[in-house]
Design goal:
7 helices; 4 strands; binds flavin mononucleotide
Length: 202
């Protein structure tokens, strides 16, 4: 499959079936992340693979936010927790918890800024696109309770959590994306040839 086809095929899934992800597919996903570029090839990514009931239960606890009623409704539909908590877990059988090690990343010599978040984001993108190429659905989750996640998963202090990817087969009745219906802006709104529109080139 051409890369552009994989890019278009990938779409956010917020309702998963409970069919497990095959170990060979998981290996391929992790391998795709392994080949991601990182600043000075520092490879500061640290990825927790969570796929047993004990750990998935922990994810359910720290992803509890209620920022959008649509998602809350979806989560209630696919979770069986009867504890009255608002839960944004979507029933995925596999969660990749992506962090970077602050002691392992490059720092910009002028600004001192760490490359860690950028590195981990590129790695996560590789993971997500490989999942799509294997006909798996995924959703990128930035919104979770970091303090609670650190505590429940025993995350070392120098690891900075960046995002989670929920991965699995889409439920038969999953509904495609809600934000702007998944539509993309025309190229002309986000890409500019040889200069910023309305600005004089010096
Ligand atoms: C950096 C980032 C953070 C996101 N955080 C969340 C999140 O916390 N919860 C969620 O349900 N979706 C989250 N998403 C999914 C986006 O809403 C989704 O990718 C976007 O609406 C485009 O839809 P598509 O993925 O179907 O193309 C996030 C995506 C990105 C790239």
């Amino acid at each position: 499959m051409d890369f552009i086809d994989i890019s278009k095929k990938r779409q956010t899934v917020r309702k998963f079936s409970n069919e497990p992800v095959e170990p060979e597919k998981l290996e391929k996903i992790l391998e795709a992340g392994r080949w991601a570029p990182t600043a000075v090839n520092g490879q500061p990514q640290r990825i927790l693979v969570l796929d047993n009931p004990e750990n998935l239960m922990k994810v359910k606890q720290f992803c509890s936010f209620g920022y959008d009623q649509k998602y809350v409704d979806l989560a209630h539909e696919c979770d069986d927790s009867k504890n009255g908590k608002i839960n944004l877990y979507y029933g995925a059988p596999l969660v990749l918890f992506v962090c970077y090690d602050q002691d392992a990343c490059w720092r910009h010599p002028q600004t001192g800024e760490s490359s860690g978040a950028t590195d981990a984001t590129i790695v996560a993108t590789h993971l997500m696109l490989e999942a799509a190429s294997l006909n798996l659905g995924s959703v990128w989750i930035s919104y979770f309770d970091e303090t609670k996640a650190r505590e429940l998963l025993n995350i070392p202090k120098q690891w900075q959590p960046v995002c989670m990817l929920y991965i699995g087969y889409p439920a038969a009745d999953f509904v495609p994306n809600t934000h702007l219906g998944g539509k993309r802006l025309p190229i002309g709104k986000t890409c500019f040839y040889n200069g910023v529109p309305g600005q004089h080139n010096s």
